[in-house]
Amino acid sequence: MKHLIVYAHPHADSFNRAILNTAVEALEAQGHEVVVRDLYALEFQPVLSAADTASMRAGQNPQDIATEQKFITDADAITFIYPIWWTGLPAILKGYVDRVFAYGFAYASGEAGIEKLLTGKKGLIINTHGTPSDIYDQIGMTAGMKMTSDVGIFDFVGIESVDHLFFGSIGYLDDAVYQSMLEQVKQTVSTKF
């Protein structure tokens, strides 16, 4: 299986990086082909500009968008790994979705309504956040984030969400807990793909 991981964290020593490394190792151990698109390392331009939309309407995608769309087209599965900032995606990943999951590529409209152009692909989202998970669960934030990303992004374009992992209290835990979280990442990618 061809697996694309879209990764968005600016720090090389972050727990998100440990999650990324664990996911890649587990997938490759099972024989999957893995491509990682590290948006910060790529210095991905997140702002959807008027020039972008004009080019896309003319049928000429900007090269950086076309490159990312090719990775998505080639992938059987897509995983997003990112921290929750202000209850949502980091700006660089939001911009990736804005620019890359474009009309005519990821979705379109037809007689029956929205056409999901990425149907047949599987998706996984792995998030970290500093707030304890039970607080996010109690106030409805976890459910809200699942709605906006699993449904609002993945399902909207036809990607089947196989799971969504949330790891809370990041920055306040001991090594044993972090290791347990990484084991959960390993088990999830090993069983869902």
Automatic annotation (TrEMBL):
Pfam families: Flavodoxin_2
UniProt KW keywords: Oxidoreductase
All residue ranges annotated as the Flavodoxin-like fold domain in the record: 1-187
EC code: 1.-.-.-, 1.6.99.-
Enzyme class: oxidoreductase
Gene3D superfamilies: 3.40.50.360
Keyword Oxidoreductase: yes
Domain of life according to the entry: Bacteria
Molecular function GO terms recorded: oxidoreductase activity
Family note: Belongs to the NAD(P)H dehydrogenase (quinone) family.
Protein name, entry field: NAD(P)H-dependent oxidoreductase
Organism per entry: Paenibacillus illinoisensis
